[in-house]
Amino acid sequence: MALTAPQRDEFLATPRVVALATNSDSGIPISVPVWFEWDGEVARMFTHKRSPKMKRLARDPRASLLVANAFGEPEQWVLLEGEIETVNEGAMALAETLAERYWDLSNPEHAKTLDSWRESTEDWCLLILNPSKISSNI
């Protein structure tokens, strides 16, 4: 049974590490864990401009984002499918927001990593997935 839109949005509002799948040169999907933010319409992520996923997205912007339950939660998942738009502005603001959501920034290692990202803001870009298809299951 599929989640209702409010159930889906509540599920997606919970911090989760999710799998972003992009297509390799041979067409085989490559999935990597990412942080994300869902606003009810689009999923936003950030990445380094020289990451391998950026090369894959430049060649083929089609992607999917699989969001699954955490261990111990009832089985649920949401799959967002569509094309990713890359944007140069806004990546660091999102990185800071997500770092606060996913990390304890009182941890010196986490704070140091975030500071290092801030020192090279021009090296980061925003990934925006506007899903053409959303599937879910409970």
Please supply descriptive tags for the structure shown above:
138 residues, Pnp Oxidase, Chain A, seven-stranded antiparallel sheet, 7 strands, 38% strand
The spatial strand order of the largest sheet comes to 2-1-5-6-7-4-3
Distance between the termini: 6 Å
- Count of beta strands: 7
What is the CATH third-level topology name? Answer: Pnp Oxidase, Chain A
**Per CATH, which architecture?**
Roll
Derived from helix and strand composition plus strand pairing, the structural class reads: alpha+beta
Radius of gyration in whole Å, from Cα? 15 Å
Task: Based on Cα principal axes, name the global outline.
Answer: globular
Low-confidence stretches: none
Verbal overview:
- Helices cover about 30% and strands about 40% of the residues.
- It is of the alpha+beta class and about 140 residues long.
- It has one domain: Electron Transport, Fmn-binding Protein, Chain A (Pnp Oxidase, Chain A, Roll).
- β3 and β4 form a beta hairpin.
- The chain starts with a helix and ends with a strand.
